[in-house]
Design a protein that fits this description.
212 residues; Tetracycline Repressor, domain 2; single chain; 0% strand; mainly alpha; elongated; Arc Repressor Mutant, subunit A
């Protein structure tokens, strides 16, 4: 694309046709920026269309309303977080490293440049059932992934494993957000490692099947 086909902020200029998938991705990027900066209630479809460099009819061709657009973003953001947890668990068989990688995933998520974590953990629309369901999906699916590992390795019941897993997820989510908001002197890596050490001291106390 030439300079004449781009707007000043790098988005395609009005009138430039994009493949449907590329246009959808562009609209989601613009919407994320607006929602993160303004919140759901203050954001307007006019703002998103302007940010994307498209007309409102083009925006509505892809997303019938603001809630549909917000839910699409939430789904994308929640899926990314769950995948990060899954990758942390699957990349090694060493459980201490799994705990470290999982906590690091939460800290990496809240520091991502796009600020997508705010849509998940700081949404101003949590009274909307569809939004609440997406937010809860991060905790529930992440916990189920971790619970599966705990149950397989320790022989604890499914109920016990899930409760421990939810506790670990909560530790990662809450501590990462607190660290970010406090803006102290501790680095991201040091903060994640510190919390991982606490988590491992707890979960590491449950012996593996083959250690008994």
């Amino acid at each position: 694309m030439s300079r004449t086909e781009e707007s000043r902020d790098g988005a395609p200029a009005r009138g430039v046709r994009l493949p449907r998938r590329a246009r959808r991705a562009q609209l989601l990027t613009a919407a994320r920026e607006v929602f993160v900066a303004q919140g759901y209630h203050a954001a307007a479809m006019d703002d998103i269309a302007e940010r994307a460099g498209v007309s409102k009819p083009v925006l509505y061709q892809h997303f019938p309303g603001k809630l549909d657009l917000y839910l699409a973003l939430l789904d994308e953001s929640c899926t990314a977080m769950i995948k990060a947890v899954s990758d942390a668990l699957e990349n090694t068989d060493d459980n201490k490293q799994r705990v470290t990688a999982t906590m690091a995933a939460f800290y990496a998520y809240v520091t991502a440049p796009d600020g997508a974590f705010r849509l998940v953990f700081e949404s101003d629309l949590t009274n909307e059932p569809a939004v609440r369901a997406q937010v809860d999906r991060v905790t529930n699916e992440s916990a189920r992934l971790i619970a599966h590992v705990i149950s397989d390795d320790t022989g604890l019941s499914e109920e016990q494993s899930l409760l421990l897993a939810v506790s670990l997820v909560g530790m990662g989510q809450v501590s990462a957000r607190f660290w970010l908001q406090e803006a102290g002197t501790m680095s991201q890596d040091d903060a994640a490692a510190l919390v991982a050490s606490l988590a491992w001291r707890g979960i590491g106390g449950y012996p593996r099947h083959d250690d008994r």
